[in-house]
Design goal:
α6 links the parallel β5 and β6. The protein has nine helices and seven strands, in the order αβαβαβαβαβαβαααβ. α2 packs parallel to α3, α2 crosses α9 and α5 runs parallel beside α6. The chain has one domain: Rossmann fold, CATH 3.40.50. The chain has a seven-stranded parallel beta sheet with strand order 3-2-1-4-5-6-7, with helices on both faces. The protein is an alpha/beta fold. It is 44% helix and 14% strand.
Length: 271
């Protein structure tokens, strides 16, 4: 069926609504937990490069100066908060610190986490509690605190950090696997309700990325060869390959993406 002139004009107008400013985060304010090292630092730098000011909530002050230098070189502001996120009052402290410093919040990246490696039969209840507390309970409570602010302003982005273990079972890491499955579930549950407030909740699931945490696996030739043999891209991911995804999910370009677990894995999961 041939389109009418009005239909063509309407379609053209719709297409022209899109421009690269959809990825612009100028004057947005983001909270990144654990945003001073590893992939968390990469997310911090990526959002700053796109124009956001950042509150980095960390446990300890590792690489604060280096992170500040990089963010400020992008022309943006960064503030740090040294805090144990597992404490009952920590989520509200983080939110309030961001508001007091920058006036509002727009983005939350729940990146902070930990892993305990032990064969299943050697795992301890203490390991279980610690991993679930930081990887899952903190994500819930901080997301809840942010969601209340986002609901009032009718906008916001929550980005959780999942894993390949959000989809699979992992050897020697039962608590981590359970926590990352839980992160996927929380992402979908929050998305289901917060969409009504124009708040999008998604997760990034990094594949096998070159970081300090994966150095021991890469040094194990047998395990390294096994992993590379399953990745269609045939290489470990570089840190920068996660940064654009963070900007996308934090920006208006992803406004119709909600409740999605976005794997950045070189194709690992397809095999």
């Amino acid at each position: 069926m041939t389109e009418s002139m009005n239909e063509i004009q309407e379609r053209t107008a719709t297409l022209n609504k899109f421009n690269m400013n959809f990825f612009d985060l100028t004057d947005k304010v983001a909270i990144v937990t654990g945003g001073n090292t590893g992939l968390g630092q990469a997310y911090t730098v990526a959002l700053a490069a796109a124009g956001a000011d950042i509150l980095v909530a960390t446990y300890g002050k590792e690489e604060w100066d280096a992170t500040r230098e990089i963010v400020e070189s992008k022309g943006r502001k960064v503030e740090f908060l040294d805090i144990d996120l597992t404490k009952d009052d920590a989520p509200q402290q983080v939110i309030q610190k961001a508001i007091d410093t920058f006036g509002h919040i727009d983005i939350l990246i729940n990146n902070a986490g930990m892993i305990k490696r032990n064969p299943l039969l050697q795992s301890t209840d203490d390991d279980w509690r610690k991993v679930i507390d930081i990887n899952l309970n903190v994500v819930y409570h901080l997301s809840m605190a942010a969601a209340k602010e986002f609901a009032k302003q009718k906008s916001g982005k929550i980005i959780n950090i999942g894993s390949m273990l959000s989809f699979q079972g992992g050897k020697f890491i039962p608590a981590y696997t359970a926590s990352k499955h839980g992160v996927a579930g929380l992402t979908k549950a929050f998305a289901s309700e917060m969409g009504a407030y124009n708040v999008q909740v998604n997760a990034i699931a990094p594949g096998y990325i070159k970081t300090a945490n994966t150095a021991p696996i890469r040094a194990d030739k047998s395990r390294n060869d096994e992993i590379l043999g399953r990745i269609p891209a045939k290489h470990w991911g570089e840190t920068y390959e996660l940064m654009g995804v963070a900007v996308f999910l934090a920006s208006d370009a992803s406004n119709y993406v909600n409740g999605h677990i976005l794997a950045v894995d070189g194709g690992y999961l397809v095999r």
